[in-house]
Amino acid sequence: KAGVTQTPRYLIKTRGQQVTLSCSPISGHRSVSWYQQTPGQGLQFLFEYFSETQRNKGNFPGRFSGRQFSNSRSEMNVSTLELGDSALYLCASSRLGLGDDYGYTFGSGTRLTVV
Amino acid sequence: KQEVTQIPAALSVPEGENLVLNCSFTDSAIYNLQWFRQDPGKGLTSLLLIQSSQREQTSGRLNASLDKSSGRSTLYIAASQPGDSATYLCAVRDRDDKIIFGKGTRLHILP
C-alpha cells in the first residue's frame, strides 16, 4: 500500500518567486492537511482539505493557499516568497477527517529553501 | 487555545534503559492524541494513536498512556536501543479538528 507522496523533495527558490508543492494521499483517504516545520516554531498547521473544500485554516498569511482535486491530491502554493518561508513542508492524509477516530499519515516532506 | 508541551526538550540515556517521554496539553476536549517519531530531515512516522476514550496503547516496546482529565500523555520506551534515537513528537486533535503539535523531545541513546 503506497504511502503519502510529496513532490518535489527539495526546492530552491528566489525571494519574490512563487512555488507549488504537491501531495498525493493514501488511496481512499479524503482529508489532506499541510504543515510548516521550522527549527524555531516547530510544526505549525497551515490548512486542511476534505472533499475538495478547505475545512480548516491555520494562522498564516494569504500568500499561502491550497487546493484539493477530485482524486484527493492536493497542492499548496506560496506566492511572493520570503526568506522566512524556508522550511520543511509536510502533508498528512487521513481517512475521513472531521471527528473521525483515525490518525494521520505523513509524507516525507518538501524541503524549501528561499535565497 | 490548545497548547501542547513536551518535556524534556532533549534526553540522553544509555542503551538498554527504560525511559518515559512526557506530553501535556491545556484543553482536555480532544478527539485523540498521536505520538510520532521524526528522524533528521525526514517526515513523521506514526507510532501510536490513542482515542479520547482510551487510556493506553501498546506496540512492541512502546506504550503510550493518556489521562485526559489531567491533560497528560506519556510514551514509555522499554529496553532502549541506539536505533530509537530520534525526535519524538506528540500531537492532539482538538475540538476544532486541528492537529496541535508539541515541539518534541530529542532522544539520544548512548551505545
The H/E string of chain B reads: EEEEEEEEEEE
Please report the number of helical segments of chain B.
0
Order of helices and strands of chain A: EEEEEEEEEEE
* Chains forming the largest contact: A-B, 29 and 23 residues
Indicate the low-confidence ranges of chain B by residue numbers.
none
Q: Roughly what is the average pLDDT of chain B, rounded to an integer? A: 94
The count of β-strands of chain A is 11
Descriptive notes:
The complex is a heterodimer of chains A (115) and B (111). With 115 residues, chain A is mostly beta strands. Helices cover 0% and strands 52% of the residues of chain A. Chain A has strands at residues 5-7, 10-13, 19-24, 31-38, 42-50, 53-57, 64-68, 74-78, 87-94, 105-106, 110-114. Chain A starts with a strand and ends with a strand. The model of chain A has no long low-confidence stretch (mean pLDDT 91). The mean pLDDT of chain B is 94. The A-B interface holds A 4, 6, 33, 35, 42-45, 48, 55-56, 58, 88, 90, 92, 97-109, 111 and B 31-32, 34, 36, 41-46, 49, 51, 89, 91, 96-104.
Keywords:
heterodimer; A: 115 residues; mainly beta; 7-stranded mixed β-sheet; 11 strands; 52% strand; B: 111 residues; 6-stranded mixed β-sheet; 5-stranded antiparallel β-sheet; 60% strand
